[in-house]
Specification:
The protein has 282 residues and is α/β, with parallel strands linked by helices. The protein is built from eleven helices and eight strands.
Length: 282
């Protein structure tokens, strides 16, 4: 059914202008494909808000091309859509991955106007491992500041079905095999804490509104999502969670962008509210 819906959506989109696709743009001074991004832009328009998407894959797999219907969906709604790659463990640490993401955001900020985007209106999103990276970038402002950017350019964050917003909690509660895998990737107790978005939720910072999507029936991503949202709310920030009923870890991502999808409706309502009330203005 989801495949049929996606096909029908793409047929419907065919009557509107297809996004202009700009692939494999290097955001670092390397020739590493893992440090490139793709930009999907409307055929016309300027000063458009930008959605910056971070793929999942357990910090060791995945690719920026795995975006399903998202580019067409966001461009049809008047956004520029950017999908980024980043390097993987064991070649780099998760901290260095977050640095890659911040460097990619820097590139987007510098080149946004060329693709019709507003460099000061960037919404950061990601699925699974990408959800952790998105939330970390939006709560630990040291990453964007290291790139010479103000965290105020990040206007909203939409993490999708992440289970590591509080890494030490995850390590304590999962079975030994998975706990060992998390320790290998996140390091010792201090490293786990440092790479947990929840650690960096502190009152008085420039932290954007959060909409946290999660699978309704998944106990880990549900608890992690609610825990992060509560921490943000207690610190005075706007945050909410939306449970996706009838979805699993794959379909909540694959269906994001379909007009009949409830998570998609909640996401666009969240984005529309921020843009319409002027909060996303520079």
């Amino acid at each position: 059914m989801r495949t049929v819906l996606a096909f029908l959506f793409l047929i419907a989109q065919a009557d509107s202008a297809e996004p202009r696709v700009h692939r494999d743009l290097a955001y670092a001074e390397t020739k590493n494909v893992r440090q490139t991004l793709d930009v999907y832009s409307p055929t016309e328009g300027k000063d458009l808000p930008i959605v910056f998407w971070i793929h999942g894959g357990g910090w060791q797999a995945g690719d920026k091309t795995e975006v399903q219907v998202k580019p067409s969906a966001f461009v049809a709604k008047g956004f520029v859509f950017v999908a980024t790659n980043y390097r993987f463990v064991p070649h780099v640490t998760i901290k260095e991955m977050a640095g890659d993401v911040a460097k990619a955001i820097h590139w987007v900020h510098e080149h946004a106007v060329e693709y019709g985007g507003d460099p000061n209106r960037i919404f950061v999103m990601g699925h699974s491992a990408g959800a952790q990276l998105a939330a970390l970038i939006c709560t630990d402002d040291r990453y964007v500041k290291a790139e010479g950017l103000s965290p105020s350019i990040l206007k909203g964050c939409v993490p999708v079905d992440g289970d590591t917003y509080d890494v030490p909690l995850q390590v304590r509660t999962v079975e030994d095999r998975r706990a060992k895998s998390y320790r290998t990737k996140f390091g010792d107790d201090e490293g786990q804490k440092e790479l947990s978005p929840i650690t960096h939720v502190v009152r008085g910072k420039t932290t954007p509104p959060f909409l946290i999507l999660h699978v309704a029936s998944h106990p880990e991503t549900k608890e992690q999502s609610q825990r992060l949202a509560k921490a943000l709310q207690n610190a005075g920030y706007t945050a909410s969670t939306v449970p996706a009923v009838g979805k699993d870890h794959g379909s909540i991502n694959a269906d994001l962008g379909l007009p009949t999808d409830e998570s998609t409706k909640a996401m666009f309502a969240f984005l529309d509210e921020i843009v319409s009330r002027g909060q996303a203005k520079p």
